[in-house]
Amino acid sequence: MRNKQMCEMLGGKIPPELRTWLYASGSLTQQLTDLAGGKFRVEPTQESFVRLTHLDAKWMNMPHHHTSWVRESFLYGSEKQPWVKAKSIFPILSLQKKARIFQHIGKKPIGMFLFDRTNPKCERRVLLLEDGWTRQSCYTWHGCKFIVQETFLPAFEQFIQQG
Fold first, then answer.
1. Which of 37, 44, 62, 135 is most buried, by CB atoms within 10 Å?
2. How many Å apart are CA 10 and CA 100, to the nearest integer?
3. pLDDT-based confidence at 6, cuts 50/70/90?
4. pLDDT 10s digits, 11-57
5. Selection from 125, 123, 131 nearest residue 60 by Cα
6. Distance between CA 159 and CA 76 in Å, rounded?
């Protein structure tokens, strides 16, 4: 079943102004920075080691008993309210390779490193979660697999509706 059909079954149609953002390729960091006239910041809210969920492990083709490093943060544009709630999931196997740099980037955006002179392979799914419309991307970058989840918050939807 296609993503659009799944989303509609889960509770509604994707708002037209969000569709472009949910399916856009490339760096969300750069796209939000452009939209905000050069303003962009990341505020990490939590970083911890947790076991992979069955769904995430299956998507990345990893054993579900593996531990992953998870980084949660809010992404801000030109407004006081966050635009995006982000969650990145890096399996231990990826952290033992080139993706280990992501564990030490602090308030820097993942996209700054992910798309620096590379165009990583990306599988995408779009979901309607409790916090809002969400895109989950499973990236393969320099032989490392990891998931970046981005939920577009109400403040972002209001901002793009005004534009």
1. 135
2. 35
3. very low
4. 468 888 899 999 998 899 999 999 999 999 999 999 999 999 999 99
5. 123
6. 12
Position 109, amino acid: P
Tokens of 34: 């452009």
- Using DSSP, state whether 134 is helix, strand or coil: strand
For tokens 């992953």, the residue is 68
Q: Which helix (H) or strand (E) holds 18?
A: helix 16-23
Q: For residue 111, count other CB atoms closer than 10 A to its CB.
A: 21
Residue type, 62: M
Q: What are the CA-CA distances from residue 73 to residues 84, 87, 103, 105, 117 (Å)?
A: 8, 7, 13, 12, 24
Widest CA span of the chain, in angstroms?
45
**How many angstroms separate the CA atoms of 129 and 19, rounded?**
15
Q: How far is CA 126 from the centre of its chain?
A: 11
For residue 116 the two structure tokens come to: 């620096």
125: tokens are 């799914």
Specify the 3-state DSSP secondary structure of 82. Answer: coil
**Domain chopping of the chain, boundaries:** 3-162
